[in-house]
Q: What sequence folds into this?
C-alpha cells in the first residue's frame, strides 16, 4: 500500500523544523518511493532495482516543458510557476497545488544562511519580480513571502517593476 501524502508532508515539515541527520536517509527514501509510486513519468527515469534515495534519477530540465510532474490532480487553485524563459523553446512549468512545503521550507534556511541567524526586522531591497507583477515567478513568490514574514514593519522596496529596473528608486 502506498504511503499517504499527508503523513509524508507532516514528517517533512517536522524534519524541516527540527532537522535530525539520523532520520534523513529514511525520509529521503520515502520521498523518492512516493514520487516513484505517484508519478509514472518519474518512475520511468529510474533504473530497475532502485535502492534508497541516492540512486534517484535527476529530472532533466526539458521534462518540465513536456510533463506535469505533480502527484495531485489539477484544480483551479493550483499555482503554476514558470521557468525564466532564458533558454529556447517553451518555458518549463511547475504546478504546485499545495504550497505547504514551499512555505514551510524556505524561512529557516534563509534566516540561517542569508541572515546569519539574525531575525531582526530590517528594510528589504528586492531585486526580483514583485509577486503581483509576475505571479508565475517562484523566486518572486519566495522573496515576497519571506519579506512579508521577516521585514516586520520595515519597508520592502521592489526595484524591478513591470517595465524592468526602476532607476528612479535606485
A:
Amino acid at each position: 500500500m502506498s504511503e499517504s501524502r499527508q503523513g509524508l508532508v507532516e514528517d517533512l515539515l517536522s524534519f524541516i523544523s527540527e532537522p535530525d541527520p539520523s532520520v534523513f536517509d529514511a525520509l529521503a527514501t520515502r520521498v523518492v518511493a512516493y514520487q516513484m509510486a505517484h508519478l509514472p513519468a518519474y518512475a520511468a527515469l529510474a533504473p530497475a532495482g532502485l535502492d534508497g534515495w541516492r540512486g534517484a534519477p535527476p529530472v532533466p530540465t526539458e521534462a518540465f516543458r513536456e510533463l506535469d510532474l505533480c502527484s495531485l490532480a489539477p484544480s483551479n487553485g493550483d499555482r503554476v510557476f514558470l521557468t525564466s524563459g532564458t533558454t529556447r523553446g517553451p518555458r518549463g512549468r511547475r504546478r504546485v497545488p499545495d504550497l505547504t512545503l514551499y512555505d514551510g521550507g524556505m524561512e529557516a534556511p534563509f534566516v540561517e544562511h542569508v541572515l546569519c541567524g539574525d531575525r531582526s526586522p530590517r528594510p528589504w531591497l528586492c531585486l526580483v519580480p514583485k509577486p503581483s507583477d509576475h505571479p508565475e515567478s517562484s523566486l518572486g513568490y519566495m522573496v515576497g513571502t519571506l519579506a512579508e514574514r521577516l521585514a516586520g514593519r520595515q519597508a520592502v522596496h521592489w526595484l524591478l517593476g513591470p517595465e524592468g529596473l526602476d532607476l528612479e528608486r535606485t
Remarks:
- The radius of gyration is 19 Å.
